[in-house]
Each structure stands twice: as C-alpha cells, then as structure tokens.
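Worked example 4.2. Below are the chains of a multi-component assembly; read each line carefully before continuing.
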Amino acid sequence: MTRKMTDYIILIFCVILAVLLHRSTANYAEISQNSTGEYVRFLALSLGLLSAIQIFINFKKNDNTTVEFYRDKKRFFTLIILLVIYGLLISFFGFIISTALFLPLTMYLMGHREIKVIVLSSGGLLLFLQVLFVTILQVPLPKGIIFG
Amino acid sequence: MELDIISVLITLFKFKNLLAVFLGTLSGIVVGGIPGLTATMAVALLIPVTFSLSPVTGLILMGGVYCGAMYGGSIPAILLRTPGTPAAAATALDGYPLSQQGHGGMALKVSVVASFTGGIFSAFLLLLVAQPLAAVSLKFGPAEYFLLAIMGLAGIVSLAEDDVIKGLISGVFGLVIAVVGTDIISGQLRYTMGIPDLYEGVSFMPALIGMFSITQMLELTGFNRIVSEKVDLKSIKHEKMPKGMWKFIGVGTLSGTVVGVLPGEGATIAAFVSYNFAKQMSKFKERFGKGNPEGVAAAEAGNNGCVGGSLIPLLTLGIPGNSVAAALLGGLMIHGLIPGPELFTYHANITYGFILSLFLANIIFLAIGTFFAPYFSRISLTPTGILIPAVSMFAIVGAYAMNNSVFDIWLMLVFALIGLVLSKTGFSTSAVVLGMILGPIAENGFAQALTISDGSGIIFFNEPIDWILWVLILGLLAPPFINMVKRNIKKKKTDLIYSDN
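Applying the procedure described above to all two chains together yields the following structure tokens:
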C-alpha cells in the first residue's frame, strides 16, 4: 500500500472520529456542557481541522513510496499470533504455564534452533521472573481461570 | 514532613538503596546498550516492580536506569554506529569514525567522562533550582496548567520537523484517548463501551509498553540479530583521553541541561543542539563527522545533561521533560507522589533522596564505563530469536502488573499495532503517549478554568504568565512550521528548474 493511501485512511478515520466526538458532547450532562463538554469539542475541532489540512497537503504532494509494515512476513505474523495466544493462555492457565509454553515455542518459531539454548534461556528467564517478581517483590502474577 | 538531610543520607546509604542504585544503573547501561530497547521502555517495565518497594527505593531504581541508559546508548553508537538510544545518534556521527580509525577506546573514554560531567552538573542544578521552581508553580492556576500541558505537547510535536501537522494530530489523538473514562465534572461515563476496566480511563502504561516495546519487537522480526558486525575488543583498550575536551564537555553540559528543562524537549534534541554548538566553537570544524572527539564530548554531555534538566519540570510542575520522564511520572504517581510543592515539603525526604541518588548513579556508570564498556556491546549481538520472546514476556508482565488486569494485556497489544501503523506512516507515537499522559492535566485545567470564568475563554489570557506561556508555545511551534514552508518553497523552485530544463 502506498504511503499516500495509508495516510488517507488514517486521516479520514481521524475526521470521522472528530465528527462523532463533537456530536457525542450533546449527550453530556448539562453541568459539563461549558467545561468538559467544551474541552472535548475543542479537541474534536482541532483533530478535524488538522486532519483536513493534512489531507489537503497530501492531495498536493506526489508521494508514491510504499509503506512496509514488516520485513519478514512469516515471522511478523507468527509473533502477532503467538502474542494473542499467549494472552489467551494467561487468562486460562495463568502466567507460569503460559510463559513456559510461550518462551520456547516463540524462540523456535523466531528461528532459533539450538534446543539446549532454548531450554536453558527459557528456564532461566522463568526462574528469574519467579524469583524477582513473586518471591522477592511479591508482585501477584495472573493465575488464570482454571487455577485461580 | 520537613527536610532532614541526615535522615535523607541515612536512607540513601541503606544497603537496599545502594543495591537499587547499582542494579538500576547497571541494567540501564545494558538496556541503553541494546539498540531497540529504550530507557523509556526500561523505566516503564520497572514501574510494576517498584510496587512492592518503598517509594524512595523504587524511585532510586528508576533514576539509576535513566542515568545508566543515557550513557549506555553511546557504547554501540561508538563501536558499531548503532545508537543504543535515539539520544546517542549524535554521538555516532564522530564516535564511529573514531572507532574505524582505531580510536574506539579513546572515544569510549571521552563519552563516559562527558556523560558523567553532564549528569553530575544537571543533578546539581536539579538540587538547587527545583525547590524555587516548585514555589513558582504555586502561582499556577487551572488556566496555566492547561497551557503548560499544551506547551508540553508543543515541545514534542516541534521535534517532528518533517511532518509537523502529523505530530500535532498524534498529540491531539493522545488527548482524545485520555478523554475515555469518567467525566471529572459530572461523573458521567464517557466512551467506555460498558467495559469496567475503562471506567477510570485508558491506562497509559500498557499503551506506552505496547507502542514502544512490542512495536520494536515486531520491527525486529525482520532481523536475525540487532547488529551483524563483529566487535574487535582488543583494539579499543588502553587509549588516553585527548586534551582540550573540557570546553566542549562544558558546552554540551550547559546546553543539554537547558534543553532538558523545556517540557517536551528530549535527550535527542539536547545531544544534537550540543553537537551543533560544539561544531560552531571548534577550531577543527571540518573534522566534525569524520572522527572529532569534540563532537562525542559535546553530544554525550548534552544527552546526560538532559537527565537532571528533564526532572525539573517533572518534579515541580508534573510536566515530563521527555518520554522517559513521562514514564517516571507514572512511577511517582503509583506511589501517591503528586509532582509540585508537596514533593519538596511533605515528601522532601523521598524527593531529595532520589535527587542525591542521581549523583551515585553517575559515579557508578563512570566506574562501570571506564572498566567494562567494550564488553557491553556484545549484548547487541544477541539473536532476535531469543531477544524477542524475552522482551515480549517482560512487556506482558509489565502491562498486567500495573492494574493486575488481563484486559491491560489486550490493551497493550492493540496499542502495539496502532503504534506500528502510526510510526510507519510518519505519525509520532511519543506525541500520542505524551498526549495520553498530559490529557487529564489539560482537561482538568481547561474545565476548571472555564467553570471559574463562567465559560469565558479570556481566562487563558488574563495573567502575564499566560502570555509568557503562549509565547513559549508559539516559539516551539513556529520554527518547524517556518521550516516546512521554506522546504516547500525550495522544492517548488527545484521542480521549476527541472521542468525548465
């Protein structure tokens, strides 16, 4: 996708957001109309106006450069999927089990093939986290629905 | 609680606090030395860790990270032309050519001494000037706080020279996100979509971690290692520091500290401003960019001078000088420490303990840097296959632990994707985050000011200080706009010449 096109998508989204934001203040309580309501209208106007100016600048600009969101498509989307699965696993199985699965799997899928290094670094990180966060600092880590 | 300097010193020299400053500085150097890991990210990740620590220990830990990271960024910048932090980009301009010429060891020495001097001077200034400034802050009303918040945003937006309008849009977008939650005047819920986790607003910490840390990890999926070059450690040891450096260290220290004080101005701009000053003053202007240690001295003194400077508006007015200071603001607030005069009266022992710890942090990185700098650069050779899962894990723990909320993990992931799209299209993620942080200050100030004035906007122009703030805001915004217009005119002229030909 060209830079110009992505810019238009974001800027049009901002304009729509500004319009909706401005209209939403009509539902604010009477007491807020001249204070926070006014503030939100000020933000909506600023966002809308600035986005319109940028759309005008882009319209005049001849920029055909493409936007590259990733260099390695496979690794990029693998990491996103793994992070989403990690988040879901944390909700169900808690932090320790999820992390014990996430670390070695991600290391392997990110291209690291030395099993010994994967096992040792995953174990080391998990141990470090357990000792630092739970034992020393007593930060509560998620236990998940099943074990919570 | 009034200031008791003896008890401050006793607290500071307790074993756990000395350990905190040492570990903080060491981990700051490591983080700063790894390109892609920023001081902001490290401080943000540390905030949940400081939950269970006493406020003074937590702040000392974060202060150590800040000081260490500012110095640590120069190591790969000099050895590998890969700035560990954006602020070290100016250091790489002359540091790397020096390494190429076999003077890497000397460049590292200049860097550590300059960083130390800049850091010590700015901490000293913080110690002397912060309290009087805090007294001035008492004169600030709601209207002035609104203008201060806008000035903070204007500062960071002004850095986006190429896309100043996009910088402004990013800042306003951050302010809009900060509107989600409970209306401070009526108590009405706004834009929460029925999600209880949003009743108190969008937590800025998951957003910060998502936008800075996970976005960077997604970026690194395209690389097998952060840096591919091999480092020759043997050639960079046992070189002496050249003479005549103090003049440039002094210039860098002064300009870095002053730039640091300005809300929104960061260490990167401080380093470049210092570098430019040094270039103007040097007898060897032509050697700048080709391996002049004067450039390394000024740039490093500049970015470390920014540390203490950026803490002055943070501690006195609650306006972060840059994104690291913004993360530190989060650290202050989770311990119930509200920036302003109370920090220097009621919480004086904590505040001064923190400020004095910055001196220790500087001494520690001087010692570490002098003896071990060449070895740190090896960390940047860590394969991304190991680095990405490790950093992602810490990011997820950091996002969760702030509110013990799994929702914040999802929030972090959403902001990571938003951050990726925005940064790839020339918008400023720093401005979005700063907007989210400054949003509540701006809204409170705006709403209270209009309530006081019965809806009249004149209140934002009533006091002389308001006019000063307006001039500063315009002063920050005008140069990038003028540059933008100049660039457009120049481009049109060039296009015209080409079309004539």
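Take a moment to check your reading of the output against the notes. The CA atoms of residues 8 and 55 of chain A lie 7 Å apart. Chain A touches chain B through 69 residues (CB under 8 Å).
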